[in-house]
Each structure stands twice: as C-alpha cells, then as structure tokens.
Protein 1
Amino acid sequence: MNKRYLIFKIQRYSPESDKNPYFKEYKVPIVKGMTILDALFYVKENLDSTLSYRSSCRMGLCGSCAMLINGIPKLACETQISDIDDGVIELKPLPNFPLIKDLIVDFTQFFNKHKRVKTYLIRRDFDEQIHPKVEYLQEKNQLKRLLLYAMCIKCGACYASCPLMIKNERFLGPEVLTKVYRYISDSRDEGIDERLPIIDSSIDGCWNCTTCSTCKLNCPKEVNTLDSIIETRSLIVERGMIQDTIREALESTYLNGNPWGGSKWDRTAWMKGLEIKNLTLGEKADLLYFVGCTPAYENRAQRIAKALTRILQNTNVDFGILGDEEVCCGNEIYNLGEKGLFEMLKEKNLELFNKYNITRLITSSPHCFNAFKNRYGKISFEVQHYTQYIAELIDKDKLKFSKKIEKKVTYHDPCYLGKINGIYDAPRKIIENIPGIKFEEMPRSKRMSLCCEGGGGLMWVKVAAPRLGEFRVKEALEIGAESILTACPFCFIMLDDAIKMINANIELIDVSELVLSAI
Amino acid sequence: MEILSHDIVIIGSGIAGLRAALEASFNTNGKLDIALISKTHVMRSHSVCAEGGTAAVLRIEEGDSFELHAWDTIKGSDFLADQDSVELFVKLMPKEILLLDHLGILWSRREDGKISQRPFGGHSFPRACYAQDRTGLYEMQTLYDTLQRFDNVTIYHECYVTSLIIDNNVFKGLTAIELKSGNLFAIKAKAGVLATGGGARCYNFTTFSHTTTGDGQVMAYKAGLPIKDFEFIQFHPTALVPSGILISEAARGEGGYLINERGERFMKKYAPEYMELAPRDIVARAVMKEIEESKSGCVYLDLRHLGEDKIREKLPSIYEICKKFAGINIVNELIPVKPAAHYNMGGVHTDSNYATPVNGLWAAGEVACSSIHGANRLGTNSTAECLVSGKIAGAKAAEYANSINEFELPKEAIKKEEDRIYKLISKEQGDSIYDIRKKLREIMDKYVYIFRIENGLKIAIRIIKDLKSRYENASIDDKTKIYNTDFISMLELGNMLELSEIIAMGALLRTESRGAHYRLDYPERDDVNWLKHTLAYWTVDGPKFEYIPVRITKWKPTIRKY
C-alpha cells in the first residue's frame, strides 16, 4: 500500500536564536484516525525533536494543545487530519497571547485575570460553606442551564478569537466573563452584588464585547460565551446601572422606535425623491423591504437604503416598506441586555408583519436579519439579508451587470452575517460576478474575520480609541485594496470613521452600491 | 541559583494538590504562605480526565454504610489494603462531597434536587457521586476557582521539579526548572506535599495523559523514600481502540454491556453476579481472555439500549469522544475497547495520614500509597482518595510548618542538582531519547501487562536495564534554555525507566496472583507468603526490595468472588 504524506507548515521561533518567526515544512506519513497532535509527535520523535508544543491529555479535556490550525483556533488533539481537506496543514501559535517559542504562548495574563473577578461561589456564611453539614439542593433544570456555561477547559481558543484582545489586553475576555456569569446564575451563590460592579465596565468588563461570536464559534467545548455576556448585561440593566449613552439609546428606542434619537415621523425621510410602495397605506407587494433604523436615520448609512431601493426597482421587484410604522428590530437592544424592551419591539414588529400579511422580507442590516431569524422565535415569514436576495436574482438571471468595474477590492464580513449566520458566500458571489473586479481576501476573513466593533450595542457605548475598524482598514490597505466592501450599516459607519481617523486612502462601498454601479 | 522561600510547597496541581492548598488555607485563615508548583498549567493536570465519579457514603438512610464502603474497598483490593487507612478514608469522604457542593460543583442531581449517585464496579451500593461523565474536570474547576479566594497561594505554573531536598530525613525544599525561562531555581519550605499523580506512561496503550510520567514517585525514590506495591498497575477494561482514550466505567454503571465478537455478554462466565460491574482487575482479565480467544483485537461496549437522551445527559463526554476520535455514534454503534494501563495502586509509602517516612513531607493522591487500594482499586475511589488525602496532607503540613523554625537550605544539594542538570543537557551525540522511550513502552506492553510470567518479566528487566544504560548516553538536539520540551522529555524518560524497573522487578518477585497482578505461572493468591506490601528502595544497581505486613483490623481475607 502506498503511504500517504501531508505537508505540515509549522511556525517556528526560538527567542534565543531567531529574530522573527518563520515557517518550516515537514512531510508526515498519514494513517487513518491520525490527529494533528499525533502528527506533531511524529515530527518531534522522528524529524525534528526541537519542535516545541504543549500537550497532555490528548482527549480534549486539559486544554493544553490549542493552536491555529489553518487559521482557526482548535485543539490539536481532537482535530482529525482527515477533516482538513486543504492539502497543506498550517500550524501557528494562538494569537492574542505573547509568543514564547514555536507553538507555545504565554498564558500568564490569561490565568491572572481570574482572581480579581471572584470566579468562585460566594456565600455570606463562609464558615458554613467550608464546614458543610447538609447538601444544598439544586434543581435539575437549573443545573442543565448552568452546564451550558460550565464546560470550559481554559484552552484559550476564545481569547485567541476575541477581536477586542487585539486592542485592549485589559479586557477580561470571554472565558472570565462566562465563568463569572456561571457563578452569578448559580442558585447557591450569593455574590452577585460583589461581582457585578467589577465587570460592569467598558474599560475591561462586559461592555467591551461586540457580540461578534468568534469566541463561541471557535470554542471546542461549545461553551455559550456569548449568551453569558448578554445575560450579565441584562442583570446590570435590571439594576439600572448603565452609562448615559446607553440609556439615551434605550429611551429613544422606547419612545421613537429607533436608538438614533430621531423622531418616529422621520423614519422615511431618507426616501425623499424615491417612489416606494408603503404597505401601511393599503398598497400590496410581494416583498417587504425592512429598512432598519440605521439606514433610515444615519446620514452615511442612508445610501445603502437608497442603493438597495434602486436595485430592486431596476430589477422590477414588487416590494414595499412599512413607512413610519416600522420600528427597531431590537437586535442591539437585546445585545445591550434590555430584554423587556426587546420583547416589546418584537411584539410590535410581529404585529405589523401579521397585519400587513408579510410573507417574505429582506433587510439591509445583518442585525435585523439576525433578530428576525434567530431571536423572534418561530416566525411565519421568510427572511433574507439583501445579499442573499441579490445573489438569487443573479442566479435566476434577473440581475445582469453591464458595466465593468476595474478595481481591486476586498470584503469585510459583518459578524452578524458571517460568523453568526454562516453567510459568507452570497456577498462574495455578488462581488465576483461583477465584470472587471479584482477580489482579494484580507488575512482575517470569514470565520476569523475581524469585527468592526460596531455590534453588540457598542455604537452606544463609550469605548476607548482606537476602534477595531482602524485595524481593519489597515489590513485592507496592506493587501493593496482600492476599495473595502461591506454589507452592514454598522460596519459601514465604523469603517467610515476609521478611514477618516487614520486618513486612509481607500474607498468604502456597501455591496448594494457596488451592485447598483455595475448594473 | 535563585532561592525562594515559602511555608509549604505543594508539588502538583491536580485534585490532591489543589485540595491540599485549600485545606492549608482554610485552616490558617489564608495566612500560611503556600507555593503550588506544577509542571503544567494548573487545570491541565491529568485529574481533568477522571470521568465516572467519586465514591462516598451519603445515604445511610437508604441503605449505604461506612462498613459497606470499607468492605467493598478491601475486598476489591484483594485484601492488600491497610484496613485502618480504608476506615479513615470512607469516614472522611462524605464531607468532601458536601464541601465541593458548597464550593459550587455541578454535581448531577436527582429529581428531589439532592446529589445523585450511580452504581460502579465492585461497589455494593450506588455511591458514585458524579458530574455527568466529567467529574474530574468539574472537581478541578471547583477547587481551582475556590483557590482564587486566597492571596496566600503562589502558583508556579509550568515549573518542572527536578529534585527534593531532604537533609537528615527532614524535608527542606526542592529544585525546579521554570520552563518559560529555563532557569533552575530552588524553593525552601518548611513542609512539602507531593501530589504529582500517577506514572504509567511507561506503557504504550494507556489512558494516561502524556505528562503523567511518574516524576513525583521518582524524585522521592531517588531521595531515599520507599515506593510501595508498585507492581500493581490497574488496567482499565475499556479504553477506546486504537487511541487508548478512557471510556468511563460510568458507561457500564449506567447499564452498558460488554459483548464479544459473537455478541455475547461474556461477563456472565467470569462474574455471574456483578457482571459488567465486577472490579476492574477481573473485568480486564476477562476482556483479555475474550480478545485472545477470538483474536479480534477488541471487545465491544454496547450502549445502544440506553437511548440517546440518557446518553446525552449522563455520558456526554463518551458521546463526544467516540464521535471525535473514532467517528462512532454510540447511540446506534458499538464502541471497540480493550484494557489499557490506567492507574498505579502503588506509590510513595505513607501511613494512614499520608505522612511519608521523611519528616515534613506528605504525599497525596495517586503518587501516594497509604494502601487503601491494595492490589486493585475500585472505580471512583481514586478521585475520592485525592480529595481525602489532599485534605489530610494539607492540614498536617500546615500544622507542621507552623511549628518549624527558619533554616538554611543545604548548599551542596543544590550544587549537586545544578551539576546533574547541566551534565544531562549538555551531552553531545548519543542515543535518541525517543527511540529509548518507544522501546520501553513496547516491552512494557509486551511483557509487563495484564498477564505476567517469569520468563517475560526477566526479558523485560534485562531490556529495561539495557535501556537505562543507553539512557545514560542519550542526548537531545534542543540545546536552548527557554521552554525546552526536548529536555523535559529526557527527564521524564529517566523517571519512566526507573519506575518500569520497579514494576517489572516487583512483579517478578511476587510469585502469586493478587488483584491486578496476575502471574500465569502462579495463578492463585498466596496469603501465607504474600499478604504483605512490597517496598522498593533506590540503589545505584537498581531497586532493593523489602516487605512489610498488611494492617488488618476487622476483615480477614476470604475467597474473592463476584
């Protein structure tokens, strides 16, 4: 039988002899059932014993062997080589940790973050706690819920995934925040009042999180980091401990149905000059275009709504809007922890969709899309993000590009479209269909895409500069892109801010605008 | 060399080490200056791999008793257990379960909200408290998290202890290498707790973590302490083929069957009453016999009749492991398993209170041998012992440290260790340590496994001695200081060679079959000549053996049937 070999491209670095990390290639014979860790052992025992990596339990429990495997943080021991079909396997140390040697990074800071936030069960009577007489009771349902947050093995995959760590190493990060929530929500714990003030911070606490979900997506043990952070915010909001800017956004949403402080009567101001059916005025249409608050109210994002409207009109789609009756989808309200308000908005929107017999709708924003798809429970209408809809129009030959656009572009994945809803292909398909365009990915794309820092309600949180958008724009500049494309109003605003902030010579275009200009 | 100073140093950060650090902190109101030193990051210890549960008598009103737990343990041990140690152990266990509950562990619960317990092999009452099938991990989390309360504990992550410093039979401290810098340093301490875990990575097919290499046993052995009953290695009946990853006995505790190639529940031939829940030595031998007879390479664990809901709720790790490592869906497929080296019944000799013969030094957890497991440990008694022994050792060490005056570290011991380390690392050109390691594991699996025989053991001993001399001339390629895993592998191999020699020689000398030690040429238990503990002492020429009696309080040895 012929032996099968695979090339392992492994990052090497010894601080005693190397200025910079470099890659070294190893040819490894592959047998059935072999894991990445098995391959590392093969290299160390047979090809190069100086290769350094950590490993211990080799059964996915001790958390020693997390590393970047073809760009994604994973445990080497539980990653089957046969599951990777990229041909070459590239191994790198986890990012967001200081590098020590080869695949080994420094966890000192990671472990040091536990003490301050009191990640242990707190009882008022400590003496009784350590001299127990009778067991505490715990309901099975409560236990079941806690288990969603508890299976952490401290491997660091979440920390390596978290975009905030790039700019703010003080941020406690998903692992610590999840652990804190796990204790806060334990019926045996009495420490909520001690812990909440510590994590209620936009310097290092839970208000740093953009809810981009990279941590949850890459957690090898499927710990629900994201929900634990949102649930923590909920507890803080319940106690009324929130920043002014968040309060204003929430109040504006409560009073006017949008977080931007605009009057509810100005929701359609953006469409001046455009003829669009208003379904609330008795008109009928096949498709509802749910504009969303940001494209409706935010000056810069209005161009997305305008471009999308003109595309739909150009392709003769029968569509309409909800006019001034449309209210915020609530996605960011939910992310800010104001669940009561979210429920209200949800009821209101569902009532509208019902009243006007909506069977199909598209959104400009991935955030609205996410709210309807994942947070509204069982829904009786079909919802798509506009990039999915346009990709379908292209498929069905209903949308054809007649103009050549000769530009080198790159695409920034909005988190709520890509990582959270798995829609990576539709926008890329649209871009690549445009004649003349030269498309190139940024180093961080798709599942490891860098967040713009606009999600999770962070539009309304006072956060320290620089914002992540600046890192993102620099990344686009580094690959020599002339334009950076995106498909989300929040990303658009954040990247626009970033371009101005660093005075970058790059053009920012929403995918909808690009489509319109090529029709 | 830098010399750091603490009141207590705890070596090892598994369940026993963390529990010891907590007890010492509780008892001194967080005042005692404690060092916790581990060759891995804390939380990466092999304890996280413990799956099935932790034994304790919680429900006397429902029919369990200390007597029963003690008797099950002693019968399970094939009467090699020291009975006073067992009695103390079972009495202290219930509090440990409650303490973990009070510290926040997610014990699985019954409908009434009380801690749930499941059946386990050799236990006559369902007394295994469990957290799904991730008991060790959740125990570790709870202990680690609670340790964050205490500012008096300094954690030395990833520092490899190379030697114990003992002067006139008094513990003084240790030397260690900080992996991150490569620096050798010393810790001076008034008391020490050795809690480094097991050491059967000298086998190839094993459930042990790669890091479980018996470092603690050997640092004690080299410092003159006796290693007790080390020929008794537990082979866990059900390790996943081909990786050797543990498939918890909880799978059988929850009702899983063992079947052979012909689909028969073969345990009816070997343990008609207890069936799959006979003690591990008996099940492991039965599995090996079935494998040898059918030449199938494995038997099968059948969980299909348990149903998906029960499997996902109670055995989620087994579900995940089989899926990820073998591509098997246990809801409707069989799990191929065979026995794997799993646990050291033996270890550093201690009394019932986990004190070693050296003043100021205690041992806790798997590295220790206070003889509660004798010749065969019952499932769920190991995490239990880690907790109890950690508690006792932590308390005793704290008490002792408070009674000791300041002293100086003996300089010559430090110098000697510095020279030894330097000599080892700077050797040019020699045998590959990885070749030696491979060969060692090969012969341990071949000759010192479940079924042992004089000739095989003699071959093994000859090869081990040969490997030891090859090791003397071995060298490594990585000559750098910072995080030199090549060098750590070399030190670990040295330890595994020493321990393998003790196992094989102890096994050769013990001309009887008892518990996990089975001699094909001496298939019966021999209480007249062998109801005694083996003690191995280090000498330049290999271990020197002595024997001490078993302490029997109430239960006279009888025929052991299940």
Protein 2
Amino acid sequence: MPTFDYAPAPESRAVVNLQPSYGLFINGEFVDGSGTAFKTINPATEESLAEVAEATTDDVDRAVKAARAAYRGVWGRMSGADRGKYLFRIARIMQERSRELAVLETLDNGKPIKESRDVDVPLAAAHFFYHAGWADKLGYAALGPDPRPLGVVGQVIPWNFPLLMLAWKIAPALACGNTVVLKPAETTPLTALLFAQICQQADLPPGVVNIVTGAGPTGQAIVDHPGIDKIAFTGSTGVGKMIARSIAGTRKRATLELGGKAANIVFDDAPLDQTIEGIVNGIFFNQGQVCCAGSRLLVQESIADDVERRLKRRLATLRVGDPMDKNTDVGAINSRRQLDRITELSAAGEAEGATRWDTDCPLPKNGFWFRPTVFTGVSQSHRIAQEEIFGPVLSVLTFRTPAEAVAKANNTPYGLSAGVWTEKGSRILWMADQLRAGVVWANTFNQFDPTSPFGGYKESGYGREGGRHGLEAYVQTGGVA
Amino acid sequence: MSPHVEVRKTYKLYIGGKFPRSESGRSYAVHAAPSRAGRPGSFLANAAAGSRKDARDAVVAARGAFPTWAGATAYNRGQVLYRVAEVMQGRAAQFADEVAAAEGLTPARARATVEAAIDRWVWYAGWSDKLAQILGGLNPVAGPYFDISAPEPTGVVAVLAPQRSSLLGLVSVVAPVVVSGNTAVVVASQDRPLPAVTLTECLATSDVPGGVVNVITGRTAEIAPWLASHRDVNAIDLAGAAGADGVVWGDLEGAAAENLKRVLRPAGNGAEAVEPDWTATPDLSRMTAFLETKTVWHPKGR
Amino acid sequence: MTVLDTAVDPAAGSTEDPAARARDLLGVSRLTDTSLTRWLHALPGVDQVGAEARAASLGTRSIKTTSKAWAIDLAISMIDLTTLEGADTPGKVRGLATRALTPDPADLTTPSPAAVCVYGDMVPFAREVLGHSGVRIAAVATAFPSGRASMPVKLADTRDAVAAGADEIDMVIDRGAFLAGHYRQVFDEIAAVKAACRRPDGTSARLKVIMETGELVTYDNVRRASWLSMLAGGDFIKTSTGKISPAATLPVTLIMLEAVRDWREVTGQQLGVKPAGGIRTSKDAIKFLVAVNEVAGPEWLDNHWFRFGASSLLNDLILQRQRLAIGAYSGSDYVPDDAPSLY
C-alpha cells in the first residue's frame, strides 16, 4: 500500500526578531524590572527563547500610577471616536504583523502554527476591530444611562491563548475609556511584549496600556493594589476564588473567566461525521488546554460503540509533533507543570478503573508532550469526569435519555460550555434551555467571535467577554456610586 | 357590649410555601420604632428567631422550586407577580399600620410608602417578559452560524433585606430577584420584620409557587454567614448588611467567594455600607445582577 | 446507526444480483420505494457547515518537497483524461489518447493517466492509439449528460460502448427520479446498466455512476445517492458530468469518500470515487488526495479506487512536475496541449 507521508512543512521563524531579554512596558516604554528575571522557553524543544523581567510590587505600583495618569490626563477624557481610531490602528498593525505574532505565539506556547495562524491571531485582531467601533457608540449599547469608564483595570491572563486573551481583555477596556495594567502568564509573555511594541507603533498615548511580566506574586500585587478599580482575570477556578476573596469588602469589581468541564452530548440522530469532528475539535484543539474544552463526551448508549470506533479511527489521523510544522494538529503541552498535572490525572483515571486508549503515535524526544487520549467506561464519580484536566484527554460517558444527559451534564460545579449533537431541532432548543452553561454549541463546538458573549455559570466565573454584554464589565452607569 | 378582644397573629417563617415556626423554637420580641422623643416603642409581637437550620431548609425549598419557576413562561411569571400586587393592595391598610409602627411614620407617610411598594412590585412584575428582549439578541458572528444570547436566572439568591425600609426596601430587593426566574431566601429586617411576614401571606395567597420566596426572620448576623457560605446558593444581595448589627459585608463577600457567588454589594463607599433611598426610580441593575447570559450557536446550512 | 450495524455475509458483496443483495442488506423481502426510503433516510444527516469546515481544514495541509512530487505523480496516474464535446472528432480523440501515452515528452518517467474518457462513438479512435497500453478507455453512456432518454436507449448506448471496447462506463442517474423519491427506479436503472456492462466473455466494464451532485444540491442527497448507487452495483461513485456547476467540490467528494469507507465496513466491498469537473490545479488535486488519505484511508490512494475526471488538470500537474524537476517555474510553452480551446 502506498503511503502519503507529509514531508515536514516548517513555518520559518526568521520573521521573528527575538531579543535576548525583555523589560516591563510601563508608561509607553520598556523599563527594567526590579525582580529576578526569568526565562521563557519553547515547550516543544525546551530551548530558552528570552529572558523576561519580573515585576515586583513597586513595579506594579509604577505601572498603576502610569495607568492612572494616562486615564486622568488623556484616555479617560478622549472622545470615543478618537479612542476608536487608536483601536483600529492596533487592529490593522496586528494584521500587518500577523505572521510574526503567529510564529512567536507558537514558539512560546507550543500550539500548532496552523492554530495560531488561523485562529488566535485573526480573532485577536477581530476583537480590536469590533471594539474599536463601540468606542463612540457606548450610549447605544443599552448599558444604562451615561456609561462611563471605571478607571484603571488590572488584567491577568492565562497561557493557553496568550494573545487572544490579551485582546479579549484590552480591547473592551480601552474602548470603554479605561487604562490597563496587564500581566501575561509567566510561561507565555512574548506576544504580549510584541503587542507593547505594536502599541508604540500605533502611537497609543503612554500609560494607556502597561504590560508587567511575572508569576503569581506579580498578579497578586495587581489584585491587591488600591489604585486598581477592576480586575479581569482568566485562569483557574482556584485562583479565581482567591481573587474574589482578595477583593471582598472593597469596591473593586471583577470579571472572572475560569475553569470548565464541558459535556459534549451526542444523540443517536446526530450528524455523525461532523460530530466526530466536533468531538475532536472539542477536546484536542489547543491540546485540550481550553477552559471550554468538551472534555466529557456524553454519548447515547445505543450508538456508543459506533462513535467510539469512528473516533479512534479519526484520532489515528491526528498529527502530533513540531508545532511549527504547518501539518501539525496537536502540538506541545505548555509547561512541565501542566504535563505533570495531565499525567497525574490520567494515571488516576486508569487507577480508578476507566479504560485508557491513546494513539500510540511517536513523540519528540525533547519538550512536553502528551498523546491524544480517550478514556472509556468513565462514570461521573471518576476524578477524570470531575476535575478539569486541561489537556488532550477525553472522558467518555453514556446516557439513555435527554433528561439523563442533562442531569449528567449539569452535575458539576462548573458551567462554562456544553455541546449538543442531534438533527432534531426541538431537542436542541430544549437541551439548550436545560443546560446550565454560558455557551451552548449545537452541532458545532469551540466557535468564538468578538460579537458573541463568552463566560460561565456557577464556578466557571462571572461576567461575559465579547459582544455588547462584554462592555458591561468596563463601564459604570447612572448616578455616582 | 364588651369590646372585641383582638385575635393576634403569630408571625412565623415562610419556607417552601408553609409557615413554620423556627426549628430552634426561639422567638424574639419586636417593638415599634422609638418615638421622636426617644421613648422606646411598644411591644408589637414575638417574631420567629430563625436559625442556620431554618436557612438551610429555606435553601432546599428554593432549590426545589427553581426549575419550575425558572422554566415557567415569562408571561406566567408576570401574571403571578402582578397578582401579588393585587393582594398587597387588598392588605394596604394592614401594611400601612405595620410600616407606620415599624418605621415610626405618620399614617399618611406610611400609606404613601405602601403605595410606592405596591407600584414598585408592579413595575418589576412587568419586566418578566421584556428582559430577554432588552438584554438578549442575535450576535452577528463572522460565519455561517445562528448565534443568540439570552438572559437566564442565576439560581438560588440569598437576599439580606434592608434593615430600615421594611416594606418598600424589601419589595425593591425581592421583586427584581424573582421576576427573572430566580428563587430567593430572604432574611427580613432584623428589627422591622413584621411587614415582611405579612408580605409572605400575600405571596402564599397569590399563586406564587411554594419555595420561590422564602423569608426568615431573626438576627441577620446569625443567619447571613450561613447563606453567604452555602454552596448551593448561587448569589447574594448584601443590601441588608447596611445597618445590621455585627455584620461586616466584606466578610460575607469573602465567604461567598468559596463557590463564586454573584455578590451584589451594599451601597456606600469603601468598607461602609449605607441603605439607599428606596424611593428613587430603579434601573435594571438589581435584575441584571442575578442574571446569566447564555449564548447558543448553531450552524446555518441546507 | 442501523445501517452500519447490519451484519452481512461478505459473500453477499457479489453484485451478480444487486436486488438480492439489496434485500439482504435492507432486511426486507421486497425492494420498494418505501423500503429504500426507510434505509436511505436512516443514514446519519450531514451538517453542511461542519462538512465544509472539515473539507476546508483538509485543504490547509501543506504538501511539500518529496511528498508533493509523489502526490503529483499519483494525481497524474489517477486522471481520466476527458473530452466530452459536441465538437469532438477522431483527430481530437487521437491527440488526447496520444497525450495519455506520453504526457510529457520531455520526461518519459511521467506516469500515464489512468484512462481517457470520451463519448461512446469515439471509443474506436481512442483504442486505435491506446491499444493494450494499459491506459483504459472510459465511455460516457446513458444519454449523457442529462440522462433524459428511455431505458432501451440508455441500455443500447451502454452496450454499444462496451462492444466498441470501452473498459469503463460512466453513466448518469436520473436525477429527476431521485429527487422525486423514486429510488427503486434509480436502483433499477443502475442495476440494468450494470448488467449491460457485461461482455460476452463474462467480464464486465467497470461502472461509474454519476450522481450530478450539482443538481442534488444538498449533502444529505449526495450521501443518499451515493449509498443507492453503491447498493445498485456501481463500481465507482462519481460527482458530476462536468456540464453543471458546481461540479466536483471538495466537500461533496468528502461525503462520497465517507460513503465508500462506511460501505466497506458494512459489506466488505471496496468501491471507487471519482470527482469530475472543476479540478484544474495541482494544488486542488493534492487537497483531494489529502482527503482520500485521511477520510477514506490510504487504501484508496490508487487509480483503481480514485480518479479525477479532468481535461486541463494534467497540464498543471505537468507544469508543477517540471517545476520540481528543474527547480524553476516552468511555462505553458513547455507543456504539450492536445486539447486547446476551439474558440
């Protein structure tokens, strides 16, 4: 039998001009940090990419003061139309430098270049375009009378979609007239620092966007800073709770976009071939390191064997390896720590009696890798059905009736997203009503758009990002509180 | 003829559509507001001193009532809530007496307050079938998808009712919670609980399903922490933290963080909590605080 | 899904009596519009957006260097080099057949296309040139392209082409009958044409069943027509006549690849797929090969199981082949063209 091996098709990294070290971006310029600089590595190779400054409490204070000054002096009093034009500029420059952003994102994060190229970067630019248009139209957004900015916003973002999460945070904040202090994740700071250069190219007034790099303590310094009016955080539910506790009793506001354990529910009348694609996309997109990943597959028992067989056949065609190869479907896990967590939970799944299957594909020698893995025979009480694994690991459960599917889907403290696959229209609408989740994808999965609000119920956090709803988190209305 | 000896009412809790005494068997004396001159108010009644277990039972009742109430049509919820206002109107004189005694108002001011409370209830009731149209809508995504967002109730909401405004304030915090389909566990004003109990009698006689609104009377500082930390409560309104003895709203918010409750903070600056002027025209904010946005995607194909 | 769960004796894969096999597969005693409808409509639906997204994602595969060279040669070997014009003449057909024997006179390692595809009356002229070269002759039949003729005429058309030496017959289904739900009629026509493909020596011309997917419009229809064609004894399912637009799109081909994949799971029988019409560039052809590889499987990467119905595709594949060979871009002056436009 002939074999159609796809020869390596590596994206060139020449487009990226990596500096040996990066400072903090405060008040429109790069400055040294006061903390201990740390390395950011390529998780696919473990090679060091650059050294990045650590922001201390003092550095964060400088950044907040710069943001406050910019808010008072320029941005908070600028017309919406002018703010919008700056955002349009940023969006355009992101498109112009899209290749560079995509390559850098893949180097620093480990995600396949085809995802950073086709999803992360275009969506990030789209977020700026969308919100640019809102800047002078907030009065029409039904947010309440006289929408006004909050002031200085502290934003802490995760490593799974570094640039996209930055865009989700910065674009609406700026459109509404706030200034920001943003901390990228310590393992993926590089595209945020490139974004700082884009702000410079756009002539964004100094202090409107400040980027401080560091780990947990830097984030805590932002959360605790008295000059911060609002916290926007995306990350784990554990940290989200810490933030909620930290700001309790203050007048700081918060939006939290946290974990999930989404059910992807497949009925016996589903469009099967597209369903298989949806399952694969649901859990293996971005190596499963997605808060809304469809990590619990709920299959109607009558078709469970068929779905399992088709799914495994499909997974065998997934190409795991060099994220810079344009044909790679599944890239590297972002960090050793995350890999350890995935490994530990998968071992627990086996130990608790679920049946483990993986693609048995070869993995690169260096870097952090985990094969696409499927657990069958999983029940609700297994850890792998309860805890967010945040990796390419799918747990398969079965159900018999729609009501049972709903009960299992909702039987979790999370409530971020859910999937429903059936060709029966009225069942989709009924299911969508019953599911306690902020986003319900019917006959599709993992779709995102700047116009579409995203966010969870219950312990998946509060507030929405995107769409008209996302603006609510960045304005105050009515009388002065 | 000998004068009629008044038949006094026993003021009880309202849980799951029933009127139990506190499981603790406790009660506490409720007095009228002190006079202008500062003389202590007269004894009005013994109210049930609700306990943490009463609060627990109320949460169970509220959780049980949630699917049906949230799943009712918005039109139906609006009709049921409007009916509450009708029954309140029929009891206006009783409310006026109780509010006058509780808040130390003149009969005319008390009547005006009751009328405002009834009007407030009607205002909120009318929102039931309009919220989704105002707050929801189609999202024009860049792809072949039908994408729609709509508000949904958050779930079980704990409400600390205002301490001072015993009826207008109470209505102003309870109606916005339940109109969208949430169910509520309400801690009544500690010192002015009697109008709240009378309101439960209106609720019980106006087609509001049992468990949709549950009212606990007693010490706010004793009950509130259990609700703030309760994992099966989805949100908490801290309005009644203002002026409540021994209540630090920040502590309640901190406890609420354990399951990421949606928290509606009390008015005021910094750590202080003040009770707002409830006569001010409301906006949507007390309703939106207890709403989730659900977004549904579906492909558009042939 | 009930269809795939049907246990079937592999021996029933024989197409000697398609109706008997169909009754067995469907588990019915009589093959009727009703029983066929029940069976075809029990196939899983196709979500258009999802199917097109999948096709688009297969289209983003980046095939470079050695893989590209391999794929280009494979694609050339899968072409049914086609001329189907009213203006076709013996000269045009001889030229095309000659081209098939020597696709690139400058590089004799260039593989030959699988077949030339002509109208039935042109078969003898193709045979003159091709002889026993191994390049097959496919003839369109059954009142191609509309299919609007009586059954006796369609069968005569088929027998005539087979008798003239056609190795393969490309028939069209009656789209009107299919869209009207007359599945039994469509089945019977395919089965009858299949019977007409038989030669006196007992061998048969291979039958490609053209569904004219551009007229079926929905992917659900494409899937049902595919299964009906396979059930009735077609050896290949083929997208289009090339006379209707859209013709061979990648999503339509994806649906058909899924059909032959699933058919083999049910019956054990492997059948072929032929997208035809609109595939003009190497880049497009390689996208189809990626789809074959990842959807049906590598077993289909052979011209016995996959064909491109195309006329100008060969020219572009040769251009790209030369580009890889000489390390510089080639031009059309270096590619012989036996089928230039008349106009």
